[in-house]
Amino acid sequence: MSYRTKSLSGITKNSMMELSRVKCCLFLLALITFTFSVSAGIPEKPVPPRLVNDFAGLLSAEEAARLERKLVEYNDSTSTQITVVTLNSLDGYDIDDLAQRIGQAWGAGQKSFDNGVVILIKPKVGNERGQAAIATGYGMEEIIPDAIARRIVDNEMIPCFRENDYFGGINAATDIITDLASGRFKAEDYESKDGALAAIIPIVIIILVIILMGRNSGNKRRNIGSSNLPFWILLSMLNNSGRSSGGSWGGFGGGGGGGFGGGGGGGFGGFGGGGFGGGGASGSW
C-alpha cells in the first residue's frame, strides 16, 4: 500500500470518528431538550408537602388552610389523597394531560392502591378561557368514572368559578369526591340527581298551565277551590321530591363539614407514589 493510500485511509477513519462524535453529541442534546420540554410546565412537588397548592393565588390564606385541613384529615382517615393545584398558565399543555402528569410526577395516592385525585384549575386570564380538570388515579377510575368527573366539574365547580368563588367550587367538588370515595353514595346516585330534576320540570310546567287556565275560567267563586287544587298538588309533589332526594343525598357535605373543625392530626406527611393512567374529565368557562 502506497503512502498516499495510507494517508487517505487514515483521514477517512478520522472523519468517521469525528462524525460519530457529532452524532452522539446531537443525540444527547436532543435527549436533554426532550426531557426538559416534558418536565417544563409541571410544577415541582411542594416541599414541605401540601395537598392544596395555590400557585395562581386564587384562595385567601384562610380558605387554603381550611381546604388543606379538610383534605389532610380525609387522607389520614382513608389514605385517599386529593390534591388541588391552581396555575395561571398551562404552558401549552392540554389541561387533562397536565393534571395526569402532575399526579404521576408527584405520586398522589398510595402506591398499593393508586387512590389519588388531582384537581387542576387555570383561571380566566385576559381573553383566555378558564379551565378546570379532575384527574383520577388507577384505583379511583371505577369510583369516579369520567362521566361523573365531568359532571362534578360542570355542576359543582364552574358555576362557582364564573362568580370568582374558587373556594366554593373547590370545596363543593371535594365534598362530592370524598363522599363518593367513602361510599356514602354511589356514582349512580349523584348522576340521578339531575335526572330527577329533569323529570319534575315538565310536570311543574303542566300544573302551572292548569292553574292559569283555572284562574281565567268564568265563575271565580265557583272555581276558587278547583283553581287552587293544582297548587296544592304541586306543593305536595315538590315536598315528596325533597324528602326522597334528601334520603339519597343526606351524605352530601358530610365529608367536608368535618374537615372544617379544630386541628385534627398533624400536617400532610407526603405523597404515597400513586399512579395515573388517563382517567378524569375537564371543562371550561
Automatic annotation (TrEMBL):
It holds the Pfam family TPM_phosphatase. Keywords: Membrane, Transmembrane, Transmembrane helix. Residues 52-178 form the TPM domain. The keyword Nucleus does not apply. InterPro entries: TPM_dom. The chain crosses the membrane at residues 195-214. The keyword Transmembrane applies. This is TPM domain-containing protein. It comes from bioreactor metagenome.
